[in-house]
Design goal:
The chain is an all-alpha fold and 157 residues long. It has one domain. It is built from 6 helices and no strands. Helix 1 runs parallel beside helix 6. It is globular and about 55 Å long. It starts with 6 loop residues before the first helix and ends in an 8-residue tail after the last helix. The model has no long low-confidence stretch (mean pLDDT 91).
Length: 157
């Protein structure tokens, strides 16, 4: 494992926060506008490069290092990666849903990681802000959809 104070590790996790901010931007924008395909594919590429750098510089390709803190995080992040890759290849409606699912998964992992691991603690505030903006936007959008479809269920003042 490369030391945590190295340039490679700095770049690895800088790409992580850039990817997360990009993911948040795409989620929020795609709720009311067409899917920003060029932006999304660029963000997805940043995320793929980040994961590759984690494997090279943090884990040296060693599976046992990748799962040293348990299988849950490993499965969660790699499932999100697979969803992100697939979302760049499917039609817009499915891509939106996949990006939203990936956002929720990545948010859970990023929030946990920013509080558990010193190497990413510096990104705690941006992660919290992205979680609030993206999560709040999703809640607002789907709350609005729910109220529009089931007006008898929701009491209005």
């Amino acid at each position: 494992m490369v030391g945590e104070g190295t340039t490679a590790i700095f770049i690895t996790f800088l790409l992580a926060i850039i990817g997360y901010v990009g993911l948040t931007t795409v989620v929020v924008r795609s709720l009311r506008h067409p899917m920003p395909w060029t932006l999304w594919r660029g963000v997805a590429l940043v995320i793929v490069v980040h994961v590759a750098m984690v494997w090279v510089f943090r884990f040296h390709g060693d599976f046992s290092l990748a799962v040293r803190n348990g299988y849950a995080g490993f499965i969660m992040f790699h499932a999100a990666l697979l969803i992100i890759i697939v979302s760049t290849l499917v039609r817009e409606r499915m891509a939106r849903r996949l990006v939203q699912v990936a956002f929720v998964i990545v948010t859970m992992g990023a929030l946990g990681a920013s509080f558990l691991y010193e190497v990413v603690a510096v990104y705690r505030i941006p992660v919290i802000l992205c979680a609030v903006v993206g999560g709040g936007s999703l809640l607002w959008y789907y709350g609005k959809q729910f109220r529009a479809r089931a007006p008898g269920w929701v009491s209005r003042p």
